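ok, trying the design again with the full structure, not the truncated one.
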């Protein structure tokens, strides 16, 4: 099978599908662009089921596929003190990958501009005027796509060199309880009543979808992942000792690792080949949130393609945001700040809507400075001054 197209999109996760959706529905007056999405077939090359969370004001394009949304967040300090805040006009939204793929699939199937091919990409090679993507279907058949532009969302085997690389690693249980124990109106964003590891920090995370149902996760920010038994022990302790949910059923599980790094991710792999999504640095280094930055990046790339411009993906986060995140990661990694106290203090002293705008990189310099007054100033300034002397080293993605 051989196909020619304006665009080839490698990967059908959040980044690949978000870009494909925008190309499938060109705005009025825009130059249409043809695209081929290369999605891994079911099997070891397809990403496992996952849940994305993000916040936005009002209605959004994926609201029809949401599992749930909330307008209240809560943080529990290590001593048990709760901090609950309303986040209007924002809504904190939960989107499952299966539902997102289904929503995208419906739109792509009826689009005259986008075609989806299930195949595992084996190589991407530059050629005059574009690139050639070679892939293989599950039945062994070869697929060749010749495109003017290629957007590759596959994670790198090795992260770029960084001064600090922590891993946000987690395991979650989708639970159903016998008695009503969850508050469906409030997300437990960070619950620090978990035992803290010797390095980094840990917390519980609860996304309630009803009085009896929730996704309950145990999360750590540290240098090394745990084995499944260790996560399950932590979840049994959290659901039993802390949440006291009583008799319950675990209906499904999810597990993942998100690199939290100040590495400089290259956005270009060739004259016509670009990285997108987490592979291009869309993950916010200090929080692990990715989905909102992916949407901004996909929108900018699609606008450039529809305007006939060179579609270099924009940097997902500003230089100021990257510096602040690098300092926080360095401070956490070197024990200069107490992670649970740091995050609890922010949620206690900064209004939740402003803090969410800050975490999304939407605050001004004066706002950033005012938020900075509520962090350990000496420790953070020390981290900033230490950064230029910290060597950059490569690290695996998990």
């Amino acid at each position: 099978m051989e196909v020619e197209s304006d665009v080839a999109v490698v990967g059908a996760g959040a980044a690949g599908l978000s870009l494909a959706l925008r190309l499938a529905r060109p705005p009025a007056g825009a130059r249409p662009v043809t695209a081929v999405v290369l999605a891994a077939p079911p099997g070891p090359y397809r990403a496992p089921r996952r849940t994305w969370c993000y916040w936005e004001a009002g209605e959004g394009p994926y609201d029809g596929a949401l599992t749930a949304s909330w307008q209240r967040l809560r943080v529990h300090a290590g001593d048990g003190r709760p901090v609950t805040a309303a986040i209007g006009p924002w809504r904190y939204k939960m989107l499952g990958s299966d539902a997102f793929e289904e929503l995208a699939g419906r739109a792509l199937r009826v689009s005259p501009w986008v075609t989806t091919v299930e195949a595992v990409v084996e190589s991407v090679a530059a050629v005059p005027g574009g690139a050639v993507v070679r892939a293989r279907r599950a039945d062994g058949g070869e697929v060749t796509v010749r495109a003017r532009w290629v957007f590759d969302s596959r994670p790198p085997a090795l992260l770029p060199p960084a001064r600090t690389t922590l891993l946000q690693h987690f395991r979650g249980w989708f639970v159903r309880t016998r008695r009503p124990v969850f508050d469906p109106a409030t997300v437990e964003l960070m619950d620090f009543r978990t035992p803290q590891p010797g390095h980094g920090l840990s917390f519980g995370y609860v996304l309630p979808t009803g009085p009896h149902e929730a996704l309950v996760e145990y999360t750590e920010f540290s240098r090394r992942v745990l084995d499944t038994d260790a996560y399950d022990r932590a979840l049994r302790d959290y659901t039993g000792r802390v949440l006291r949910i009583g008799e319950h059923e675990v209906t499904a599980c999810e597990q993942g690792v998100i690199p939290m790094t100040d590495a400089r991710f290259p956005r270009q792999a060739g004259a016509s080949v670009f990285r997108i999504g987490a592979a291009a640095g869309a993950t916010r280094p200090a929080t692990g949130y990715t989905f909102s930055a992916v949407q901004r990046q996909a929108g900018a790339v699609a606008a450039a393609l529809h305007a006939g411009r060179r579609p270099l993906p924009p940097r997902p986060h500003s230089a100021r945001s990257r510096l602040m995140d690098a300092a926080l990661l360095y401070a956490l990694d070197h024990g200069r700040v107490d992670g649970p106290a740091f995050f609890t203090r922010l949620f206690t002293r900064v209004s939740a809507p402003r803090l969410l705008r800050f975490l999304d990189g939407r605050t001004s310099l004066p706002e950033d400075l005012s938020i900075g007054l509520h962090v350990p100033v000496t420790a953070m300034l020390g981290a900033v001054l230490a950064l230029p002397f910290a060597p950059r080293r490569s690290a695996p993605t998990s």
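Keeping the full-length input from now on. The longest helix spans residues 291-307.
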